[in-house]
Amino acid sequence: MKMCCVGNKDSLNRTDPYKASYIQCNETIVLSHAYQHATVSSPGFPRPYPDDAECVTEIRAPPQHSIRLHFEELLTEHEPQ
């Protein structure tokens, strides 16, 4: 089973401290019988990530297994009206 989660990360403004940790983005987590749990957070957590940014975390589990997500905190970017 494969799952992909899209969060946010902006690499255009490199002087912003929230955007400087670009290397923490775009990772793949491979779960196995020995490695059954993982923690995923947005770059710089608990600081907010910038609007209009993109960061991808792919979570893979062995065949015939499922992935269960538990969110302790979930905030999305503000959409101006």
Automatic annotation (TrEMBL):
<dbReference type="InterPro" id="IPR000859">
    <property type="entry name" value="CUB_dom"/>
</dbReference>
<protein>
    <recommendedName>
        <fullName>CUB domain-containing protein</fullName>
    </recommendedName>
</protein>
<feature type="domain" description="CUB">
    <location>
        <begin position="25"/>
        <end position="81"/>
    </location>
</feature>
<dbReference type="InterPro" id="IPR035914">
    <property type="entry name" value="Sperma_CUB_dom_sf"/>
</dbReference>
<keyword id="KW-1015">Disulfide bond</keyword>
<dbReference type="Pfam" id="PF00431">
    <property type="entry name" value="CUB"/>
</dbReference>
